[in-house]
Amino acid sequence: MMKDIKIVIGANAGDEGKGLMTDYFSQKPNSIVVCSNGGSQRGHTVMTPDGIRHVFHHFGSGTFNGAVTYLPKEFIVNPLIFVQEFKELINKGVVPIVYAHSDCMVSTPYDMMANHIVEENRGKQKHGSCGLGIFETIKRYESDITDFDKVKDYYLEKFEKEGIVLSDSWKKLFNDQGIYEHFLEDLDFMNDHIETTRDESFLNIFDHIIFEAAQGLLLDQNNLKYFPHLTPSNTGLKNPKEIIERVNWNDELNIEVCYVTRTYLTRHGAGPFPTECNKDEINAEMYDKTNVPNHHQDTLRYGKLDLNKLYQRVIADVGDFECERSITITHCNEFRIDDDKFGKLFSGWNIYKSDGETHNDILRYKDG
Fold first, then answer.
1. Are residues 21 and 90 in the same domain?
2. The predicted structure's pLDDT at residue 368
């Protein structure tokens, strides 16, 4: 037998259509989606053919197809967000099945509040965080603070050392015992609704394994050109490749790495954006339902797509990894690119195109 492995990676700064492609690839029975980086800050939108819409954070974007979710140790879990989304999905008629590695880091409300406080203190120099405490969780674990009872004091001491003065409202929230007790309830709920594991060989029971990366190559933690406006994780092939290498597979692997891009660029949050332009230069009529303006990331930004640089990014990421290579271009109905140039650059690649919101709208072109 042959294991079918798809790896879905954002080619830009996120919001390219990774949820759409994960939904597309997970239509086959006995599929599992591996959320290979990030945490609850991911927001991957799926629209079912019958009009049910969901933005996936803690669960793989194949959930509506019955695909199982796996959260490896590279994923940061957040019990509060997990519970909210689990109940949303139940209300939409689906019961998620989730495996999680027992070494996943866990975000607390204190990590989230610290994230808000730090961003507020940065003022105009803010990094553009989603406000979910991802970076704070990572740094806390690096400081070996894993006992949840000690997290509040860890941050209060940290703020004092760094000269951050809390407002009365933040002091009140930090000292609200009810917030901590609610977190423990959410933690219990999450633990009751996931199957924890340390042995990733369980992936062998699935015929189709889809790796769903979060964010995009431009936001990779090693893209120093955009520092500090990055995400604290590996957004490309690195994590999926390492997870694949950790498993003792029973069958041969057929791997396809699929890079996803819109016909234009977007960026939600602060940071460099060399080809930024007014939205009207792309399409004045389009509207992004997922990326609405918010306090931390402001309004979604738009820019022109440089096809040469797109090609260079994905080639640098895939390297000499042995796999089929594919590129997906989405939002084709909103803005046109140079099809001839695109076809020449990605000659020999599998090409997917979509101008819709469901997997029924995806057209596939074999070998360019």
1. yes
2. 46
* Same domain, residue pair 206 and 175: no
Whole-number Å distance between alpha carbons of 197 and 318: 29
Taking the CA atoms of residue 286, residue 287, residue 288 and residue 291 in that order, the dihedral angle to the nearest 10 degrees is 130
Our count of domains for the chain comes to: 2
Tell how strand 68-71 and strand 31-35 pair up. parallel
What is the predicted pLDDT for the residue at 54? 97
pLDDT value at residue 9: 98
Range of the domain at 161: 105-192
Strand partners, 3: 253
Q: What is the pTM for the complete model shown?
A: 0.94
Burial class (CB in 10 A: 0-12, 13-18, 19+), 137: buried
Cβ-contact 61, 18 below 8 angstroms: yes
User: Do residues 330 and 17 lie in contact, with contact meaning Cβ atoms separated by under 8 Å?
Assistant: yes
What b-and-e string marks burial along 7-33, b requiring 16 or more CB atoms within 10 Å of the CB?
bbbbbbbbbbbbbbbbbbbbeeeebbb
**Which tokens is 146 given?**
């894993």
Residue 114: which of 178, 167, 179, 159 has the closest Cα?
159
Question: Tell me, what's the pLDDT at 11?
Answer: 98
pLDDT at 77: 98
213 and 139 co-located in one domain: no
By the 10 Å C-beta count (0-12 exposed, 13-18 middle, 19+ buried), 363 is classed as exposed
| The residue type at 166 | L
pLDDT at 366: 72
Q: So what's the pLDDT on residue 90?
A: 98
**Neighbour order of strands in the sheet with 265-267:** 265-267, 301-303, 276-277
- Among 192, 218, 251, give the residue marking a domain's end: 192
Confirm whether 200 is domain-assigned: yes
Is 156 in the same domain as 43? no
CATH number at residue 169: 1.10.300
What is the number of other CB atoms lying within 10 angstroms of the CB of residue 283?
A: 15
Shared-domain flag, residues 162 and 222? no
For residue 239, the model assigns a pLDDT of 98
The list of the chain residues with pLDDT below 70 reads: 122-130, 290-298, 367-368
